Structures are given as structure tokens and as C-alpha cells.
Amino acid sequence: MDRRRTRVVHVGGVLIGGDNPVVVQSMTKTDTKDIDATAAQIRDLTVHGCEIVRLAVKDVDAARALKLIKEQVGIPIVADIHFDARLALFAIESGVDKVRINPSNIKDKGLVRAVAQAARVAGIPIRVGANLGSMDATTRPEDRPQALATEALHEAALFEEEGFRDIVVSVKSSDVREMVEAVRIIATSTDYPLHLGVTEAGPLRQSLVKSSAGLAPLLLAGIGDTIRYSITGDPALEVDAAWALLAALGLRRNRPTIVSCPMCGRCEVVNLLALVHELEERLGEVHHAVTVALMGCVVNGVGEGKSADVGIACGKETGVLFIRGQAIRNVEPARFVDTLIAEANNLLTDRAPQ
Ligand code: SF4
Known about the structure:
41% helix, binds iron/sulfur cluster, five-stranded mixed sheet
């Protein structure tokens, strides 16, 4: 797949754009002034694989808190600022790795210049963009994608006028088609790296569908350099979802994936659903990208079990263990999950099957 050609920006030690892998982002949901709670949430997000985290900066205290938060965490932090450009200056002083702000919201053009200058001196990029929520409500639905794209490019141009080009662009909408269309327009209009997301995508199930429906066609077309799932809920869910999508699209893998069948009347194990849930829960014990299959019968189970790295295809009161395509031995149902976890870990250490 050809990636869209973009500039590369540095966010702390993370590179966005160019040939670099698509970066997983999330946003904290704590009050940024609560330093310990925010740092703890970032550390949890880091465990889940978050690579860049954005924090809402509502006031000077929050901007100041960023310094102490940054000392406690290991991934780059981004200050999310609306309207008050002085907060961007304080955040940059606090050592943030990137700022999210729209210069058109800054009335004093001297402050736009000051933010661009401070970011340049600090060597950090700025994300600008357009969001359906901030668009003119009278814009006709059919005109919105172009309007979003035009507005985002306008935001970038305001910093370009200050000679600042270390920019990431986003165009977001809660409408999947609008977001996709707006991003496609932007992608052909600029070489800035793009941050993708369906905004205000709702609670978990709805967001998983909407965000994936929006992000997948763009990523498969080589468009998009960072992603965020917007989910009303624990931000770790956003990170898990982002990784699951990147793995499903074959773009990145950092963790195991499960192949399990939907079950039907041929299923040979009564409690397969519970076993798959248990396997999913315990997959955190496997720290490498491996495919683990648990299939209800031999009809599709043998093929899927064989093509997974480790798999079990169920038969009557037993299951056949496959490792990298080879049938190894029979396993009793009570040992399915333990066996799959153990053998998945064995593949990392290259030990012989037990
Ligand atoms: S693997 Fe077997 S039990 Fe599972 S859905 Fe396919 S045919 Fe049904």
C-alpha cells in the first residue's frame, strides 16, 4: 500500500508522518490540575500502548500542572487549548511536546506570532484543524466536507504566515461520510501529516463501528498519520480500539489477536463462549504479536487453527492443538486456555511445545 507523502514532525521522541507507523493517540479524562490522577491515567494509557496523549488545558493552573505531569510519564504530552493563546505559551513553558490550538480563535495576531515563535524555539509542532462543532451552522450538509477542509487549511495558513510549518492537520466530524470526504480533500491539498478521528463518536459500541468505518477506508488508502478513537468511556478503550484497527488492517501489531468462530449448531464444546472470554481476558499475559485461534469444531476449525500461530479446533470432549500449522496433541477443554496462553508465550521464547 502506498502511503500519502507527508512532512515529518517530531512529538517528543515520536515521529508523525512520512514512512513512520501510524501513531496511536488518546486524551485524558481527568481534571488536568489533578496532577497525580492525570499522570496515573497516562501511565495506564501507556501500558495499553498509547503513544501520544492530549490533555485539556482550561486555565493557567492546568498549563502549569503539565510540567509536573510530564515528569511522571513516559510518553509525549499535547496541550489541548481553545481560545486563550496565553495558555499555549504557559504550556510550552511547561515543556509540552505539542500544542493543539486554532489560530483563528486568537483575536490578537501578536499572540499568534508569539505562539508560533515559542513553538519554534521549543522545537515542537502545533496541530490545527476544523471540527464540525465549530462550523457555521448554516453550512449546507453537502458543502460541509469542503468547508471543513477549507477551514483547516485556513488555520494552517495563519501559522504559515508566521513562517511556521511544523504542523499536523485534522478535520473531524461526528458524521462518518463527512469526515472521510473532508480528509480526502485535505490529503490532496497539503503535505502536512494528518490526525484522523470521528469526533463525538459516542459510547463504546457505537464508536467502534463509526470510528472504524471512518478510519479504515482512509488508512487503507494510505491516508492518516495518527489516529484517535473518541469513546465516551475509559480512554484505555480508545487505545485498545486503535490498536485493534491497525492490526486488523495489517498496519501495525503489538499484541496478540484472537481468531474465534461465531459458534453454530456444530459447536462441540458447550461453554465455548466462556472460554473465548477467558482467553480474551488472559491475553494480557502474552506480550507479543501472535494469532491465537479457538474454534468450535473441526469444520472451519482445522483450517483456522492451522493458519493461526497457536490454535485449538474442538472435537467431542477434546481439542486438537495446532502450532504453526502442525497438529501437536489433543487437549481437554479444561486446559484449552492455559494451553493456548502457554504455547503462545513459548513461541516468543522459541521453546519447544509442551
Ligand atoms: S467452527 Fe464449527 S462451530 Fe464454529 S461456526 Fe464454524 S462450523 Fe460452527
